[in-house]
Amino acid sequence: MNLIDKIKSGDFNFEDAVKLYDLDLFILGKEANKIREKKFGKKTYFNINRHINPTNICKDICKFCAFSANRKNPNPYTLSIKECVDIAKNAYKKGAKEVHIVSAHNPEVGYDYYMNIVKAIRKELPDIHIKAFTAAEVNFLSELGGKNYEEVLDDMIEAGVDSMPGGGAEIFDEEIRNKICKGKVSSKNWLKIHELWHKRGKKSNVTMLFGHIENRAHRIDHILRIRKLQEKTGGFNAFIPLVYQRENNYLQVKNFLTGVEILKTMAISRILLENIPNIKAYWVTTTLNLSLVAQSYGANDIDGTIQRESINSAAGAASRNGLDLNELVSLIKDSGYIPVERDSLYNEIKIY
Ligand code: V47
Question: What is the mean pLDDT of the segment spanning 244-254?
Answer without folding.
Answer: 88
